[in-house]
Specification:
This protein is α/β, with parallel strands linked by helices. The chain has 15 helices and ten strands. The strands form two sheets. It has an eight-stranded mixed β-sheet with strand order 7-6-5-4-3-2-8-9. The chain binds iron/sulfur cluster (SF4) (2 copies).
């Protein structure tokens, strides 16, 4: 990877802060239209027929500024969800008991003023609640009681740890982040997380470079062995996630001259089985301002739901249904369908034999 940006693309006034510029860069990289490839494999159009996960991105504010961040999040971002929008999320959950899971993401979602409200309300409604946590946030003085709060509400923690080696994690997330991550994992373990006793702690691996993740099951074994032997840390599952060619990872591969090669890799590794399991089929993504998207990646590219589906929480509450709906796609979608596939819950076609580099 490379030295870490201290500011978001937006704060640096970088051209790729614009979603339109990102999509144009992918088009220039020579990848075919995603829908054409889907059609060739009899998979077009992509459609969602259920909402198994309501994924709410409460904003772009984060205490870190990772090199690969697909959100362009960081300490300089100010977008945060309001109570009015959070109330609409809660109303949606109340009206739709068939949505089993609330998945809260960001930025560092815990820094959003609505985070604890959303978690408490969804948990009181009996929903499974997932916190996408960057770990270091648990060490902030303002968040001293966060682990206890998560434990009290039986929140599932899904935490980013790109590598079980300090060099890999720090290269992507900043100097000293690996050590902080270990401290945070120890806090979670001490609270009972990751010990198979109902407090779920999952880790997320993504490659430290422009290649596909390795086999999820093998990596999980490696992570479990290394973290336990070297650091006494335990966890439940490892999810592997492909680096999406958008935002700051796109900046990195463009600047290092790897954009064409990376897109060729994603396209050549297209896997129809992975396409059957892409998360937009079962997720609905909500932006900090209440706009609806088929997934968090579309959210960052400002590609809201379309094809007649409601585009805001308010419209959805009025219409009362958002499925079935046709998914909005573009070339970045090759990041979800390469190799074993990539979703917020990891690989979907484990064991796929495809080129990684
Ligand atoms: S990758 Fe996660 S922790 Fe890193 S800057 Fe983005 S939102 Fe924050
Ligand atoms: S990027 Fe989003 S819309 Fe595209 S395949 Fe992945 S989950 Fe679906």
């Amino acid at each position: 990877m490379r030295s870490l940006p201290v500011l978001s693309l937006q704060a640096r006034g970088h051209e790729l802060a614009s979603p339109a510029a990102q999509r144009a860069a992918l088009a220039r990289a020579g990848a075919p239209a995603f829908e054409e490839v889907l059609a060739r494999h009899g998979r077009a159009p992509l459609e969602a027929h259920a909402i198994e996960v309501l994924q709410v991105n409460v904003g772009k504010l984060c205490n870190q500024a990772c090199a690969h961040c697909h959100v362009d999040a960081g300490p300089d971002r100010r977008e945060v969800m309001t109570r009015e929008t959070a109330d609409q999320v809660v109303e949606l959950l109340q009206r739709h008991p068939e949505i089993p899971t609330l998945d809260v993401t960001g930025g560092a979602p815990e820094l959003n003023p609505q985070f604890r409200y959303l978690v408490a309300e969804a948990s009181a409604l009996g929903r499974r609640v997932v916190d996408r946590c960057n770990l270091s946030v648990l060490l902030l003085p303002s968040q001293r009681d966060l682990v206890g709060f998560l434990k009290d509400h039986r929140v599932e923690v899904t935490a980013s740890l790109p590598s079980f080696r300090a060099s890999g994690t720090d290269a992507q997330r900043g100097d000293g982040v690996f050590a902080k991550s270990l401290d945070a994992l120890r806090l979670l373990n001490e609270a009972g997380y990751g010990r198979g006793e109902g407090l779920v702690l999952n880790l997320v691996h993504n490659p430290v470079g422009s290649f596909l993740p390795g086999d999820q099951a093998s990596l999980e074994r490696d992570y479990k062995r290394e973290l336990q032997l070297r650091h006494g840390i335990v966890f439940d599952r490892l999810y592997t996630i492909t680096n999406m060619p958008i935002s700051r990872f796109l900046e990195h591969i463009e600047r290092s001259g790897n954009l064409h090669r990376y897109m060729e890799l994603l396209v050549s590794a297209f896997n129809p089985v992975a396409a059957d399991g892409v998360m937009c089929r079962t997720y609905l993504s909500v932006g900090w301002d209440g706009t609806l998207y088929d997934c968090d990646f579309n959210q960052m590219l400002e590609m809201p739901t379309n094809h007649g589906a409601p585009r805001t929480l308010g419209a959805l509450l009025a219409a009362d249904t958002v499925v079935p709906r046709q998914v909005v796609t573009d070339r970045h979608c090759f990041g979800c369908t390469a190799g074993a596939g990539s979703t917020c819950a990891g690989a979907v076609a484990e064991g796929a034999r495809t080129p990684r580099r």
